[in-house]
Amino acid sequence: MPDHSEAAPNRDDLVARLDLMQAMIAEGRATTARFGWIFVMWGLIYSIAMTWTAFLPHRNWAWPICITFGVVASITVRHRQRRAGANFGNPRERSIASIWRAMGTGVTLFSIACAASHQITGPVYISAVLFMVGTAHATSAMTLRWAEQGMAAAVWWVAGIGSLFFTTPEQLFVIYMLATFFGMILFGIYAMVRERKRTLPPAVPRHA
Fold this sequence. Notes:
With 208 residues, the chain is mostly helical. 77% of the residues lie in helices and 0% in strands. The chain has one domain (34-194).
């Protein structure tokens, strides 16, 4: 009988596949870096929501309103980038975007449900949000094999654990603000600096 089994890939095929995978990972990291401003924006939005919850009236609606604003702003900017010719066609780029869209949808629905049931200020709510953001960072970091984003995920997870043990309003506020700064704003700034360095033209050597 004829053998219909596929021939084993040769060394050149394996090298080509590996090069393609590495190129896609590098492009995924570059895409995340190009959107460093989004991490900074969301870090500021989280900080505003937490401050509103801690010190301002109508605190039950702080998170739904702030998150909705962030989602609308992100969609608007992305739409404008598409109209300007930005290309988001890389499969890894789409997968990373899907991770953050899923996280944003989950946090938004969770926040609205907690606000409607008046359970938005407790440590369990804060811990759940911290873990969801950390999980999105971790999934992206493992997809892109990016240790720096893995460190950001660890910040959010450690804060999520800590918020279940240090449960006074003051402690929760400090924990959340620290996680937001180190795990979102600082990571966003790092990504923006990385992208700026990547896009700088090569230095022209000086001749004596």
